[in-house]
Every structure is written in C-alpha cells, then in structure tokens.
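Internal tracking record. Fields below are filled automatically when a chain is submitted to the structure queue. Please do not edit lines marked as system-generated. If the sequence contains nonstandard residues, flag them in the REMARKS field before resubmitting.
Queue: standard
Priority: normal
Entity type: single polypeptide chain
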Amino acid sequence: MQAFAFGSGAPGPASRWERYLPRYVRSNKLPNYTTINLISYYWITPGVRIYLNVDNLFDATYYDRAFQNRYATPGAPRTIMGGVAARF
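SYSTEM-GENERATED OUTPUT FOLLOWS
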C-alpha cells in the first residue's frame, strides 16, 4: 500500500445558460470558469488515514447558476477540509 498520495483536478463547465427557462427564451450566458482542486492523504496504518482537500485553491470568483435573469449564485470560495478516516 502506498503511504502518501496526492492528486488534483480542474473542473469547470464549458458553457452555461440561466436555468429554468426554455432554451429559446434564455438571454444570460454565465461566464466560463475553472477552479483548481487538490487532494492529499497519508495512511497512518492500513485502516486509518489522514487527509487534506483544498477546493478552489486560488479562490476564484465565479457564478454557479442564474435564475430567470434575476440573480446569480456565487460559487463556493476556497474550502479546506481535513480529517481522519478509518476503515473497519
């Protein structure tokens, strides 16, 4: 078993329109975005590992969704999660 692991991802949609309207009525195209996410973990024992995940590493500002040309929901800011996971 590998004791340490590290990974990354760059999710981001190619093209998005406001939701909940028929396609022929949609007028607002949301800007494209990409965020960088990191994951790492270390196995302390064969059944216990510690982990650290960082989503939106560079704290990019983006809009996750829009609703009927009235408002846009901002995406999640930088999020850091850590913990201990155990398998029984």
